[in-house]
Structure formats: structure tokens, C-alpha cells
Write a structure and sequence with these properties.
The structure is a single chain. The protein has 8 helices and 7 strands. With 249 residues, the chain is α/β, with parallel strands linked by helices. The protein has a single domain, classed as NAD(P)-binding Rossmann-like Domain (Rossmann fold, 3-Layer(aba) Sandwich), CATH 3.40.50. It has a 7-stranded parallel β-sheet, with helices on both faces. Strand 2, helix 2 and strand 3 form a beta-alpha-beta unit. 47% of the residues are buried.
Amino acid sequence: MYKTHAGKVALVTGAARGIGQALAQHFAECGASVVGVDLLDQTDTEALVRKAEGQFLPVRADLTSEAEVAASAASAQDRFGHVDILVNCAGIYPTSSWDDLDYATWKRVMTVNLDSQFLMCKAFVPQMRLRNYGRIVNFVSGIFQVPLPGYSAYRTSKAACIGFTRSLAADLGEFGITVNAVSPSFVLTPGVLEVSRQIGTAEKIIAAQSIKRQSTPHDIAGLVLFLASDAAEFITGQTMYADGGLLNR
């Protein structure tokens, strides 16, 4: 693996499993030091990073808490001095019919999926701006393109993340900070598998792709690593797709 991110510090939310864990591993393989932020245990992620001969700082934090997000920023700064790359990967995706969707669930999805990205950017952008350098990658979702029922809250939250990405990119471009969004297909992760078993979503998504197979977390890593690299310094405000050609947009 080429050390394209040597000397960089990458922070990944949702790093305990799934896409976030794969990203932590790939960043380490490319030479970056990694901060993983999650409420879940990150022992397995740390083992993968260590195997790649990378440095890893696990931080346990509730991403919907402004105080805990600020504490995670302080921990990262104490350990590594700064963060070059912020990847907002964490999210939840409960399904519900419109009739069963209550306001508490709606607010929770918006808070975890959208507000967490806002809070993380608020915490880390100031240090990026001081250094005139930063790469921010926000995760959105391929489900935004597919008319499946039961995703009103989730789909809306991810649409808002696209708007947030575009707005933040416009605000930060003059400081050498790029902000982009990545939209994967229905990636094979533990949480997604459970939802898929409930409503058969995976089969419908795969049928709509040009590449007729289930995607994995490692299928997404290359795009994120590119957007987080110096090679992507003139790309910002974009939503980019790693989805097997879903619907052939």
C-alpha cells in the first residue's frame, strides 16, 4: 500500500465496525495516524490499525453531545497535535412506515445523522483553519436515490447532510479546507444486514446496480482516501458515489 497519507492524522467517527472500521484500517495502511470515535468498543479496530503499523487513539464519545465532541477534539489534539482529516461516518438508519414514525424517532435520526456532523465540524474546523489545511468527508446515502418505503427520517437526514456539505464547502474553501460527501450503496455491515433481513432492501438495491453484487466496506475506502488526499485539493462541495452504478444516474 502506498503511504499517500503519511504524516497525516485522520479522525473517523463510527470506527468500531463497518465502514468506519474499514476506513481506520485503510488510513493506517496509507501511513496516517488514526483517531476512532465511537460509543462502542474499538478493540478490534485498534488491532487492525496496529497490524498496519499505525498509531491509533480510541475515543468513546456520544456524537450528539457538544461536550463529549469537544472532549474528543481535545483528546485528539493532546495525542497528535492536530487533525488533518475528518470523516463523519457514524449514522443510524431505523425503518418505519409513515404511520408508525413518531416525532421522537424523527428527532433522534436527525440528531445522530445530521447534528453529529455539524458538531464534529464545529469542533475540528478551527484547528484546520489555523493550519490552512483540512479534508472533511461526510457520509450520505445511496438510499436517497431509491424510492423504497420506510426511510422517511433517514432519507431526509441524508439529504440535509448533502446541503450541509455544500454550504460548509462554500464557507471553508478560502482556508484550504475541502468538504465533500460520499454516497455508498447498501454496504454489507452488521447494522445493514439486520435491516436488510427485515425488509429485503439489499436485493432491491443490487438489482438496480450496474455491478450486481453486494458492496462491502472496503469498496468505499478508495473514494474516501482520494477525497482525503492532497490529490483532491480542487474538489469540494461534491457528492460522490461509490455504489456500483446504482440507477445509472
